[in-house]
Amino acid sequence: MASAKKKTAPVKKTSAKKKMATKKAPAKKRATLKQAVDTPPTKSQLRVKVTEAPMIVRSVRPAPTSEEISTRANQLWVRRGCLDGFAREDWLIAEAELYNGL
Questions:
Q1: Contact indicator for 63, 41 with CB cutoff of 8 Å
Q2: 3-class SS at 16?
Q3: Cβ atoms within 10 A of the Cβ of 79, count?
Q4: Which backbone phi and psi does 71 adopt, to 5 degrees?
Q5: More reliable by pLDDT, 37 or 69
Q6: How far is CA 4 from CA 9, 29, 44, in A?
Q7: Digit-coded pLDDT (tens) for 4-38
Q8: What percentage of residues in the chain have a pLDDT greater than 90?
Q9: Which of 71, 73, 96, 97 is nearest to 86 (CA)?
Q10: 37-63 burial string, b = 16+ CB within 10 Å, else e?
């Protein structure tokens, strides 16, 4: 029998330039929690965006009670000269003043 030669696929030779082009840049290391806490913020992190408006904080007051509204309405009635017929208007004015903090 004749000896059979095995056929092998030809080996492709790549140039050094192609090898350099296919290499990826090394991945950046992520900061650990300790590094993130210990490092001071950068200038860009300290900048405040112009679009951000400062938050306005108002104190929350409880709604006025009926007794407070009645007292203020009575004061308005006395200031008017104790004229009858304006009880509802005095009540609404007193209520508005107390809700708006006047």
A1: no
A2: helix
A3: 9
A4: -65, -45
A5: 69
A6: 16, 54, 72
A7: 566 666 666 655 555 555 666 666 666 666 666 67
A8: 34
A9: 73
A10: eeeeeeeeeeeeeeeeeeeeeeeeeee
